[in-house]
């Protein structure tokens, strides 16, 4: 008899605990999750992918910029599409964002989705999905993107001035990533996204045209090539950060660092600094890099996510409702 009562009490306690867990999940249930639009707009992800694919077919150089735009969005106010808002004083007008490209890709995907599922899918989610698809269409592995973000209502240009920069030391980069909940390995992995990225010549001109001497970490045999593709008269010209492999998502970016052929100072120091060199060596292998990149992207895409009443679903991505 006592055993039966004990079992009933145990079951009752389990039910109470289960209800408490469910209530907790529901209370936090507006966070991101894979398949958030599976019932409300089941074609959303396929529309984003086909749109990105169409644009990349016309202009393969857009893959890197779309990935970069997502990164710049997440590092300022979280992944809330605040970087997409147009107007005076917005993030789009800040120095680090003046060279961003791919806004038309996101706008195109948004217009197609709105025609099918009005007021359902956020611009923040579209940007996150487009970044994933840009990587996959460039040869990277896919990953499941948690969705359910809301769009932010605030965009302040001055806040974008704290974005990781081309001359940041490893210590500075670690600090900026740590502030966003990302560790040193995430830093090196996400820097690997530069395999499909570009840079303006002015961002590294002081490394190759310095009256006090060129950057000693640069392979001397690489200098003539850099000066050829980046003459001093063309500071805004953009060049590949992964020489010879700009349109392929691979590990040659890391191989270039080992050879002293990193384009940006912030990239090359990942090899010269002992605290990050091990990760560069680790991800010279293609398989581990591609797998880990997706994991780090999921972490990054959940920085400062807005849900519920914290944000909105914009009708058009360049303006708040």
TrEMBL record:
Binding site for Ca(2+) 2: 195, 242, 250
Active site residues according to the UniProt entry: 72 (proton acceptor)
Stated name of the protein: Peroxidase
Reaction(s) the record says it catalyses: 2 a phenolic donor + H2O2 = 2 a phenolic radical donor + 2 H2O
Plant heme peroxidase family profile domain: residues covered: 31-321
Binding-site residues for Ca(2+) 1, renumbered to this chain: 73, 76, 78, 80, 82, 91
EC category: oxidoreductase
Cleaved signal peptide residues: 1-24
UniProt keyword terms in alphabetical order: Calcium, Disulfide bond, Heme, Hydrogen peroxide, Iron, Metal-binding, Oxidoreductase, Peroxidase, Secreted, Signal
Pfam families in the cross-refs: peroxidase
Cellular compartments per GO CC: extracellular region; plant-type cell wall
GO MF term list: heme binding; lactoperoxidase activity; metal ion binding; peroxidase activity
Record's function text: Removal of H(2)O(2), oxidation of toxic reductants, biosynthesis and degradation of lignin, suberization, auxin catabolism, response to environmental stresses such as wounding, pathogen attack and oxidative stress. These functions might be dependent on each isozyme/isoform in each plant tissue.
A GO biological-process term: response to stress
Binding site for heme b: 194
Record bears the keyword Electron transport: no
Places the protein is found: Secreted
Cofactor comment: Binds 1 heme b (iron(II)-protoporphyrin IX) group per subunit.
Disulphides: 41-117, 74-79, 123-317, 201-230
UniProt keyword Disulfide bond, yes or no: yes
EC annotation from Swiss-Prot or TrEMBL: 1.11.1.7
Lineage: Eukaryota, Viridiplantae, Streptophyta, Embryophyta, Tracheophyta
